[in-house]
């Protein structure tokens, strides 16, 4: 379920000193950060003491039990829908209502821009009919909204969210806490769908072992880039090989990348243990793009690859081999010198014998 539940109230004990203005601003920024929570297909809820509410999709022609808002709209088209807000607390609740664009965080979760950040996609296209809503205790209120896709909108997937927001003052800390709760709004704009992923900036580092016959480890890094116009995740495989494909070592099972919006990048670092030092190693990262349609079914696309090489010389073993070669060469040279001396002595004896016979 694509529920955006965010900014739970954080209680801060009264301090024996006052927070400076810069520190207070930093704390406020941290407390108003937005996080995506993946939940079961039930209405999203936020609660703290006597204040609680939940949001869900309205029951209409689009469905009665939807986990989020999802539409297929041609450029220039408009859809109308409703979000339902329920006050489960014991006091009236006044919430701000607005929309914003979505993005993928470094933790791999869908997040929404804060209200002070400028939206350019779904956050602009989605317009609630009201900017705030007041809900009586135990009651629900409808928040109708429209999604209007511009005529020049780029075909493909666009994601944002419709949010409710409650700001409350924390007198103990002297700051305001902004708690937000909303639902994802996904829009697939009509036109040619071009789902594509690319593996970029691949790099391989080898970490050798001190033992002459011990294996080392490798670290493979790369970036998965959504270069298409569809929301895509990727199934990953990483392997390290020696020359001619020998000494192959697989990284094992890797988690899929998060669903990346068009244009987004995801940096990946993969440790690979037990890698034999094959002098020259090649790492290959293979990503299988996964396209999810509106029904939730996943379609695999053609895999994409990225590769990188690195030297992996077993220096301890190389030193031993060099010493052995030096010893062999020394033995051969000594044997040749002894043989030459023996030959010279034999020649001298023959020469002396011949001279004695002639005398």
Structure description:
It is built from 3 helices and 21 strands. It has 3 domains: 2-189, Immunoglobulins (Immunoglobulin-like), CATH 2.60.40; 197-313, Immunoglobulins (Immunoglobulin-like); 317-359. The strands form 4 sheets. Strands 1, 2, 5, 7, 8, 10, 12 and 13 form an 8-stranded mixed sheet that branches. A 5-stranded antiparallel sheet has the order 3-4-6-11-9. Strand 19 (279-292) and strand 20 form a beta hairpin. The radius of gyration is 35 Å and the shape is elongated. Helices cover 16% and strands 46% of the residues.
List the main descriptive attributes of the protein structure presented here.
about 350 residues, alpha+beta, 8-stranded mixed β-sheet, Immunoglobulin-like, 21 strands, 5-stranded antiparallel β-sheet
What is the H-and-E element order?
EHEEEEEEEHEEEEEEEEEEEEEH
CATH architecture of the largest domain: Sandwich
Number of domains: 3
DSSP E strands, number: 21
Rounded to an integer in angstroms, the radius of gyration calculated over CA atoms is 35 Å
In the CATH hierarchy, what is the class of the largest domain? Mainly Beta
Shape verdict: elongated
Q: What kind of sheet is the major sheet?
A: 8 strands, mixed
Low-confidence stretches: 7-42, 47-51
- Name the beta content range: over 45%
Class by helix and strand content?
Answer: alpha+beta
Mean pLDDT: 85
Distance between the termini: 117 Å
Number of helices: 3
Helicity level: 10-25%
CATH superfamily of the largest domain: Immunoglobulins
CATH topology of the largest domain: Immunoglobulin-like
């Amino acid at each position: 379920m694509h529920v955006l539940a965010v900014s739970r109230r954080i209680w801060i004990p009264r301090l024996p000193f006052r927070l400076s203005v810069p520190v207070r601003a930093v704390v406020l920024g941290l407390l108003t950060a937005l996080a995506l929570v993946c939940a079961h297909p039930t209405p999203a809820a936020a609660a703290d003491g006597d204040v609680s509410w939940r949001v869900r999709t309205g029951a209409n022609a689009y469905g009665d039990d939807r986990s989020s808002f999802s539409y297929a709209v041609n450029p220039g088209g408009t859809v109308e829908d409703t979000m339902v807000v329920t006050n489960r607390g014991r006091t009236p609740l006044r919430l701000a209502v607005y929309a914003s664009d979505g993005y993928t965080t470094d933790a791999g979760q869908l997040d929404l821009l804060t209200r002070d950040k400028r939206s350019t996609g779904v956050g602009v296209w989605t317009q609630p009919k009201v900017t705030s809503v007041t809900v009586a205790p135990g009651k629900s209120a409808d928040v109708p909204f429209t999604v209007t896709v511009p005529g020049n909108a780029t075909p493909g997937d666009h994601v944002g969210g419709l949010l409710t927001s409650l700001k409350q003052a924390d007198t103990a800390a002297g700051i305001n806490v902004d708690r937000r709760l909303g639902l994802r709004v996904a829009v697939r704009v009509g036109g040619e769908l071009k789902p594509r992923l690319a593996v970029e900036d691949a790099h391989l580092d080898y970490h050798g072992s001190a033992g002459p016959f011990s294996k080392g480890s490798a670290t493979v890094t790369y970036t998965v880039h959504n270069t298409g116009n569809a929301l895509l995740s990727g199934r990953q495989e990483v392997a390290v090989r020696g020359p001619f494909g020998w000494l192959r070592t697989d990284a094992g099972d890797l988690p899929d990348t998060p669903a990346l919006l068009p244009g987004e990048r995801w940096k990946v670092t993969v440790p690979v243990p037990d890698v034999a030092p094959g002098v020259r190693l090649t790492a290959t990262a293979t990503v299988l793009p996964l396209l999810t349609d509106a029904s939730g079914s996943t379609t695999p696309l053609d895999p994409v690859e990225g590769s990188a090489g690195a030297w992996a010389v077993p220096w301890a073993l190389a030193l031993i081999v060099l010493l052995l070669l030096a010893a062999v060469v020394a033995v051969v040279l000594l044997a040749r010198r002894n043989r030459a001396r023996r030959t010279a002595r034999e020649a001298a004896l023959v020469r002396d014998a011949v001279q004695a016979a002639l005398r």
